[in-house]
Amino acid sequence: MTPLKAKVIMVVNLRNALYQINRILLADYIKLVIIALL
After folding, report:
1. What is the DSSP string of 1-38?
2. Which phi and psi (to 5°) does residue 2 adopt?
3. Three-point CA angle 8, 20, 27, nearest 5°
4. Distance between CA atoms of residues 5 and 14, nearest Å
5. DSSP letter at 38?
6. What's the pTM?
7. Cα(31)–Cα(25) distance, integer angstroms
8. What does the pLDDT look like over 18-33, one tens digit per residue?
9. CA-based diameter of the chain, in Å?
10. What angle do CA 17, 9, 1 make, to 5 degrees?
11. How far lies 22's CA from each of 6, 8, 25, 38, in Å?
């Protein structure tokens, strides 16, 4: 495992984690908007 490959894997994992967090936050935000509109 080269340092570069390790770095790439780390960045990909980080991006996946951020994507998951953003999806959760977006879902919560949409729920709040729907509640506000009702």
Report:
1. --HHHHHHHHHHHHHHHHHHHHHHHHHHHHHHHHHHH-
2. -80, 155
3. 155
4. 14
5. -
6. 0.60
7. 10
8. 999 999 999 999 999 9
9. 55
10. 155
11. 24, 21, 5, 24
Q: Which two tokens stand for residue 36?
A: 């506000």
The residue to which tokens 């996946």 are assigned: 16
**Tokens coding 23:** 């999806």
Which pair of tokens denotes residue 38?
Answer: 């009702």
With tokens 């951020």, the residue in question is: 18
CB environment 5-27: b (16+ within 10 A), e (fewer): eeeeeeeeeeeeeeeeeeeeeee
Domain coordinates of the chain in residue numbers? 1-38
